[in-house]
Amino acid sequence: MKKSITLIIAFFFVITAGFSQNTPDWGKWNDLIGNWTGEGNGKPGQGSGSVNFSFDLDQKILVRKNHAEFPATATAPKVVHDDLMIIYPDFSGQPTSAVYFDNEGHTINYVVTYTTNSIVLTSVQIKDVPVFRLTYTLLEPGLVNTKFEMSQDGKNFMTYVEGKSMKTK
Length: 169
Fold this sequence. Notes:
Largest sheet: 10 strands, antiparallel, barrel
Low-confidence stretches: none
Strand order of the largest sheet: 1-2-3-4-5-6-7-8-9-10
Radius of gyration: 20 Å
Distance between the termini: 56 Å
Number of helices: 1
């Protein structure tokens, strides 16, 4: 009986090791790790905010926490926006997906692609729902441009908000 249990446990570890994912390749994300502050403008108006990128779960996922504030204007109340995004790899170890949640109740599933100096997150297309695109472009070490866009057809994107952030640590 004891021998059977030992064999079952050993078999379990062999099987799960065979299905484990590769170590994530965070190379394109490394420049974003840390704390950032910035300013931008767009549909909600002129605003400022902060964002933090940090690893979690033994560097298996990357967590982005964002806070933005747009002051009240003569025609609109103050807007405070908080969100959380988890970037995670596929079985090859490439960070190819992300899931986003915010204090307005939105959940967005993103597909991640890369260019030479940009990381582009495009939402999974859902019938009758706008397509969202979030792009981080490294302008120089410690300076990044962030652009959030929307599209009704997934082809013609309009900028909703855009701004520059500086790394603080």
